[in-house]
TrEMBL record:
Residues 6-186 form the Ketoreductase domain. GO terms for molecular function: oxidoreductase activity. It comes from Luteibacter yeojuensis. Belongs to the short-chain dehydrogenases/reductases (SDR) family. PROSITE patterns: ADH_SHORT. This is DltE. Gene3D superfamilies: NAD(P)-binding Rossmann-like Domain. GO terms for cellular component: membrane. InterPro entries: KR_dom, NAD(P)-bd_dom_sf, Sc_DH/Rdtase_CS, SDR_fam. Keywords: Oxidoreductase. SUPFAM superfamilies: NAD(P)-binding Rossmann-fold domains.
Amino acid sequence: MNISGNTILVTGGTSGIGRALAESLNDAGNCVIVSGRRQSLLDEVTAGREHMHGVLVDVTDPGSVTALAQKVRTDFAGLNVLIANAGISRPENLLDEAWTPDDAEAMVSTNILGVIRVTGALLPVMANQSEATLIATSSDLAFIPMAAFPTYCATKAFLHSWLQSARHQLRRAGVEVIELSPPYVQTELTGARQASDPRAMPLGSYVAYVMDCLAEKNLPRGELLLNDASGRRFAERNGVYEAMFAAMNSR
């Protein structure tokens, strides 16, 4: 992926990593289409920015994704980069008498099916370009789960596997596939407290790191993760999985 001169669509682009990445890519000289579920936030993100566009999309709604694909074909036929970033995270306590599968179903619908839907809808447009890239936001929790977030971590583990297969298949069409595996970052993914948690990586620092890796094409195995996340990535191979799982889930 070139760092500039692209037409890029970012799902979940009205907050957190999606918004910061959309803004940085726009600053780098790309036409960026930001999608989200609230028009007020889309207006806020795109205000005062050239070559930044907002589109209402709900990735859990197949009809909404179909409408997005139609708009892209009409208004943004040069789309060559999709960043499938929309995702939600909710804790779950399976021993709680009030627990139901509702939150799990919502996370599967957004984090897994949302990525598959937008990829399927927009891949025909991207495949017509001379250079195309699919980026999907996974997590370093795909490699070792945080047990308080069982379904969220499982959805990211699914994406890690699915993207490997997609990368293998799409190489024949010249479509690059990149897995973005963020660490714990100062966003509101799990609530307002996370955005100011000193244990989390500052959002600006993380997005700057991503931009540097994309510019330098520092993407071993098509994966973009922090160097210190390699311990989790290869914990099973290195024989330390059980120890790392216990350390992450000591409560």
